[in-house]
Each structure stands twice: as C-alpha cells, then as structure tokens.
UniProtKB/TrEMBL annotation:
Residues 134-239 form the HTH LytTR-type domain. The lineage of its organism: Bacteria, Bacillati, Bacillota, Clostridia, Eubacteriales. This is Stage 0 sporulation protein A homolog. Residues 2-116 form the Response regulatory domain. May play the central regulatory role in sporulation. It may be an element of the effector pathway responsible for the activation of sporulation genes in response to nutritional stress. Spo0A may act in concert with spo0H (a sigma factor) to control the expression of some genes that are critical to the sporulation process. The modification 4-aspartylphosphate is found at residue 53. Keywords: Phosphoprotein. PANTHER family: STAGE 0 SPORULATION PROTEIN A HOMOLOG, TRANSCRIPTIONAL REGULATOR-RELATED. One of its GO terms (molecular function) is phosphorelay response regulator activity. It comes from the Bacteria. InterPro entries: CheY-like_superfamily, LytR-like, LytTR_DNA-bd_dom, Sig_transdc_resp-reg_receiver. SMART domains: LytTR, REC.
Length: 239
C-alpha cells in the first residue's frame, strides 16, 4: 500500500511518518507542502492513500480532495488538521478519516488498522457484480445478494450501507464507487448520501425548496432527493 503525506509542518510530518512506519505496512513514497504539486504528482503516479493537511499552499486540502474525488480510481483521503470545523466538508468528499492535531497515538493506530483492512477488502474481497448478484458484507461474512432486493444505499464515511427489506449490509467502498457496480436502469444517485432503487419507489412527496422525499415499498424511512439531482430525477420518473 503506497501513500503520500501532504503537510507543511516539518515536525507534524515527521511524527506522522513515525506512526505510519511503526504501526502499518504503508510505504510513504513522497512528501509535499504544496497542493498544486500534489495534484500534478497524482495525475502521473498512482497512490493508495493521501494523508492530507487542510492548510497548505496553492490549493487548500479540501479543494484538492474535491479534485481528487473526480478521479476514476481515487486514493483514500485521511485529513490531518488542527481544525474541527472542516469535518462536514470532509464528509462531503467522502474522506476515509479525519484526524485532529495534536496526534493521539491510539487514534492513529486505530485509523491505520482500519485503513489497511479497507484496502485489503477493496482489493481482494471487494464488491463485485456477477450477473444480477452482488457481494456484500455482514458480520465479517460475504453475503451474495440479488441486486433487485436492494432498496437503497447510504454513505457512512467511506463505508456504504446497503439496505434490503429486512437486512443491512456494508461494503468498503465509497457511495460513488459502489454506485458504479449497480445497474444504471434501476439505481439512481438521488443525493450525495443516497442511492435509491427506483423500482421500489411508492410515493414521491414534494418537499422544501423544490425537492422531493421518496417513500419506498415496505420500509418507513423516507429518502431525500437533493436539488442538484432533481432535473435528472424528473427525467427518469417522467415528471
């Protein structure tokens, strides 16, 4: 597993390298202080994880992460920052984790362990569609599920929760990555945090600011359709 560190404080960078070297098998292949240099590097070099400070030169970390999120093969992004207030933005770009400075050793070790587990699952046991079947996780077991049984999916940090009528599964892919594995004629990204099976929609309820809430068959939770997805949703549903 290859990674880079983007951090303009020397001591913070050295401390993070120490933790990575001693508590993981991740290889740090380069270090950067400038966001523009990072963008140029990853356009020509493939890495698996970026440890990314927010306050960096040229392009701040959040904007850099938004650019990276558009890549077809995205590295995991772990934000490292002294500021709590960017956590919502980190969620929006589906960052793997959000680590606050000063570093807490147990928190770093936990993050590194989860990161390596996610990498292993994504590359060896990742979600895959076989005909109309898809591999999902429940209680550390791979469960083969018919995609027609899926009602909706929702983002939980980098992990995606997949819900059927009676069960909840997980897959260690971002919502965007998982969406690419689903049949386009049945599943629609209706919100940054939701994918819905349009064949399960029972009611379309007008909501605030010209948006909709969706009621699905057999389940109580309503699924939002955000304003940015309204136009495509109306076309799909012939509204």
């Amino acid at each position: 597993m290859k990674g880079i560190i983007v951090e303009d404080e020397f001591l913070a960078r050295e401390e993070l390298k120490y933790f990575i070297k001693n508590f993981s098998s991740i290889e740090i292949v380069d270090e950067f202080e400038d966001g523009l240099d990072v963008l140029k590097f990853i356009q020509q070099n493939e890495v698996d994880v970026i440890f990314l400070d927010i306050n960096i030169a040229s392009i701040d970390g959040v904007l850099l992460a938004k650019n990276i999120s558009k890549f077809s093969k995205r590295p995991y992004i772990v934000f490292i920052t002294a500021y709590r207030e960017h956590a919502v933005e980190a969620f929006e770009v589906e960052a793997f984790d959000y680590i606050l400075k000063p570093y807490d050793e147990s928190r770093i070790k936990s993050m590194l362990k989860k990161l390596e587990m996610a990498y292993e699952r994504d590359n060896e046991k990742g979600s895959a569609v076989i005909s109309n079947k898809i591999n999902l996780w429940k209680n550390d077991k791979i469960i083969v599920v018919d995609v027609d049984y899926i009602y909706y999916c929702t983002a939980k940090e980098r992990i995606t929760e997949v819900l059927t009528r009676e069960e909840k599964y997980t897959v260690n892919l971002s919502l965007s990555e998982f969406c690419n594995n689903l049949p386009k004629d049945k599943f629609f990204r209706c919100h940054r945090s939701y994918i819905v099976n349009i064949t399960k929609i029972k009611e379309i309820i007008p909501w605030f600011n010209n948006t909709y809430n969706l009621k699905l068959q057999d389940i109580e939770e309503e699924i939002p359709v955000s304003r940015s997805h309204i136009k495509d949703f109306k076309q799909i549903m012939n509204i």
